[in-house]
Specification:
Number of helices: 7
Order of helices and strands: HHHHHHH
Distance between the termini: 30 Å
Number of strands: 0
Shape: elongated
Radius of gyration: 17 Å
Number of domains: 1
C-alpha cells in the first residue's frame, strides 16, 4: 500500500527536509521552504525543523564551495549550471562586500554562485561555514516564526 503524503512526511519528514534543503542549494532548481512550512503546519518541532533545514542547506552550499575550491570549469558550468555571467556577477558582489556577502548565500540566483566564488577565492572554510550557516539559519528561523504566527492568526480568525 502506498502511504499518503501526510504519512510519508510523518515518517520521513525531517529526512526529506534535509535532502531537499541540501539539493536546493546544489544541483537541482528546488526550494525547500514549502516542505519546511508543510512540516511546521503538520506539527513538527520548530527547532528541529530549522536545524535540519539549515544543516542540509549549508552542507549543500559547502558542496558549491568545494567545487569552487577544487573543481574546474566543467564542474562549475555543466554540473552546477553556473555560467560565466552569473559567476562574474557573484565575483563582483564578493569583491565589493568581501566574505561578509556570504551571509546572504540564501538569496535566490546569487547565493549558489557566491558559495562557488568563495571556494574559488579560497575563503577560509571556517569563515565560510559560519557566515553561510548563520544566514541560512536566520532565514529558516524567520520563515518558521512567520509560518507559526500566521497559522495562529488564521486559526483565530477562522481561516483554518
Amino acid at each position: 500500500m502506498i502511504p499518503s503524503m501526510s504519512e510519508f512526511l510523518a515518517t520521513y519528514g525531517l529526512w526529506s527536509l534535509f535532502f531537499i534543503s541540501f539539493c536546493a542549494s546544489t544541483l537541482l532548481p528546488l526550494g525547500s521552504e514549502w516542505l519546511l512550512i508543510t512540516l511546521l503546519l503538520q506539527g513538527s518541532n520548530p527547532l528541529a525543523t530549522v536545524v535540519v533545514a539549515t544543516i542540509g542547506n549549508s552542507l549543500g552550499a559547502g558542496t558549491n564551495y568545494l567545487i569552487g575550491f577544487y573543481g574546474g570549469d566543467w564542474l562549475k558550468e555543466k554540473v552546477l549550471r553556473i555560467d560565466k555571467d552569473r559567476q562574474q556577477r557573484a565575483e563582483k558582489w564578493f569583491n565589493r562586500y568581501g566574505s561578509w556577502s556570504l551571509f546572504l548565500a540564501w538569496l535566490p540566483i546569487i547565493g549558489d554562485p557566491l558559495c562557488l566564488v568563495a571556494g574559488t577565492l579560497k575563503t577560509p572554510l571556517i569563515r565560510f561555514s559560519l557566515l553561510v550557516t548563520t544566514g541560512k539559519g536566520l532565514r529558516y528561523s524567520f520563515l518558521t516564526v512567520l509560518t507559526l504566527r500566521g497559522a495562529v492568526v488564521l486559526t483565530q480568525s477562522g481561516g483554518i
